[in-house]
Each structure stands twice: as structure tokens, then as C-alpha cells.
Amino acid sequence: MTAAHAPDTPGRLVLSPFRGLRFTAAADRAAVISPPYDMIDPDRARALASGDAHNIVRVILPELDEPDPLLRYRRAARTLRDWRDEGLLALDPEPALYVYEQVDGEGPDLSVQRGLIGALLLPSDESISPIHPHEDVVGVVVQDRRSLMYALGANPEPILLTYQGGGPASDLVERVTGDGAEPVVDVRTADGVRHRLWAVTAPEDLAAVGADLAGREALIADGHHRYAAYRELAKLGRTGSEHGLALLVDSSRHPLRVRGIHRWLPDLRVEPALREAEEWFTVRALDGGYKAALQALGELAPTSIGFALVDGHKAWLLSDPDEKLLERYIPADRPEAWRRLDATVLHYALAGGVWSIPDTADHIRFDHDPRSAVNEAYRHSGVAVLLRPVAEATVLELAAAGQKMPRKSTSFSPKPATGLVLRLLDES
Predict the structure, then answer these.
(1) pLDDT bucket at 297, cuts 50 / 70 / 90
(2) Are 243 and 9 in contact (CB under 8 A)?
(3) Any idea where the domains of the chain sit in the sequence?
């Protein structure tokens, strides 16, 4: 059963097989894949694009080749079409679920993640959805991803879902990766990570996965903006848009790592920022730059509230906010776990309340790498704010309660590579 013909199953988790669009042997498969679009800074994007003319980054970030916002989506669609015409991309002959394995490091540092890539059925009723987002999104980013997918007629990269499994679907993943079957993709990228992909087409295997997943629920670990874009695309009624590309990982067998996502605020001068913060927070100067800041954050008690300001080579720890500040600026109708998140206090109380900084993409920028956040802040005469990761148990608790954390509160990893398999909406 292909994704386009999945039955109406409200409230059930459905990952359907589809005919994957993949790079052929005519392309250098190790050189054409990339990280997810929101993990690539401009310098990395240009390096990937110049390293191979067919790197998928030219599709997911079409502004590399077309600076005009009105034309970039059309450019991406033309690029994808040209690559298909040139025989660089081809559809698999039959629908499949794809077992995906990422292997990084060696010895005691070895990291292995495995999961299933398929066409995720989007819920027709959010009130009984088995798919749980845990972060807010920015509308302009959602519209960008929706417009790109609409123009492409495709989902170019999967979102990442996690669930507590341990059943037949997980058994299938382990069996396929361990039985010596030939993968359809086996590449090692420049960062040393090995990526392997197997196509699962046997009807009995697909049926077992479907039956196992039907009663389960999944957390969106990465890809909230893409998931929201899937939902927006589905509202347009385009054929095939009732599904979206997803990687589903059983965290009981392959736990994801949770890291913090950092902020940098352009044009915020550190001296006045610190003076204003000192009225409400305990502020401690640190001996060193961002590394000292990360160490200090790691030493905070789990129940504490805190983050670090970094200005070039100088850093300060901000912790223990005045309860009056929280009462004034943080909504009282939310769970206590949400009200005391570091990101909540930063966005609502410090940035919005004390510094009067609008919570927009222009005024608060995000970076997964602390060093990069500090460098970007310095380049833009601003400051970086480094955050701790949120405990996975807290993420699950809030998601189960239907509460969304401030956008970019968590970074689950490893993330699936982009370009291993794409999904056409109509699969034709």
C-alpha cells in the first residue's frame, strides 16, 4: 500500500511505504547529501554547494543560486527536475519503508542510530493526534518550507520522530541491519559518519510495522517547522500532501542525545544589558569565554534557572531570577515546568521584559554551536546567550500535557542526513 492510498485512520500512528526518489550511481552519493537545512550556516552551505554541483543543499536552500525571494522556489523546482532529467535522481521501482542507520565514532565513542523512514500520515484531527510537537514555530519559516515543498512537489528532507517502542517495528530495524542484506545506500561523509539505507518491501514486514505502530504515539524531536509546513501544505489539498516524510526512531533502543540551542542577539551592548540584568538576576563573571560558560552551566543544579552571556572572550553566568520578575512577565496559566524553563525565562522575562527585545527572528537568532553563536554575536556587535539542554523527561512531560516550549528550546541528535531519500508528493 503506497502512502497515497493509506486508509483513513484518525488517532493512529501510520508510517506508510512510498517510492523513494534517490540519487543514482551517476552522482557521488557521499558528496551530494547534507545536514538539515536549519543546521547549515551560510559558509557551510557555500562549501557544500561548491564541493559538488549536485549537492542537495541547492534544493533545500535555493537562495544559494537565486537571491530573488520571488524566484528561489521556482529555481529549486527546476534544479530538482533537471537532476531527474539528467538521470542523477530516480524513483525506486516499488513502495518501501527505508531502514536508516547512522554510525559515528569508534570504540567507546561509537554512536549508532537506527530507524524507519516512511510517509507519515498527518492527523485529520489534532485533538486525537498521535504526533506531539513540543516547540513553538515561527510563521515566516513555516511559510518558507511550505512554499518550497509546494514548488518542488516533494518533501526533500525528513522530520525526526521518537517513540517508546520495543515491538515488531524495532525488531525489523535490527534484523534488517544485522542480516547482511545489501543496502541501497552505503556512504561515509566527510565528517566520518557512515550512512546506510535499506528498502523494506515485503508485504508481511510492512503489515507488521503498520500493526505495531497503530497504537503508539510519537514526539517530534526535530523538524517542527517542517511538520507545520506539512500541515499547511495539506490544507491546500495538493495530491499526496496528506503525508510528510519522517524518520521514526525507537528511543528505547536508540536514545537520542539532547543538546541546548543557543541564542545571539544582534546590536545588544553587553554593558547596559548586564546592568539591567543585575537588577533581577544573580550575575557572576566567569574566568574565560564560552567554554567557561558551558562549564558553569553544567554545574548548575537541575532545578535552577540559568544561562550565560558571552561577549567575545568574556562571559557571565545569570541565575536565580527574582520571583517578582517571573510573576510579572511569565504567563501564570502554564505548568510550573514550562514557567521555569531556561528558554521561557530568557524569552519572556529577560529579553522581552528587561531588555524589551521583540521575540522575532530579526532580533533573536539561533545557533546549535556555542562557538558559532559567540562569533556571530561579535560580528554583529551583540551578545550570545548560551543555554543548557532541557531534560528529555521534561520535554515528554510538557508534550504529553499539550504544552509547547519556546521555539528552538532543544536539539535532538543525531539528525537524519538530507538527500539520502526524497519523497515526491505524487510519486510519479
Answers:
(1) very high
(2) no
(3) 3-258+413-424, 261-388
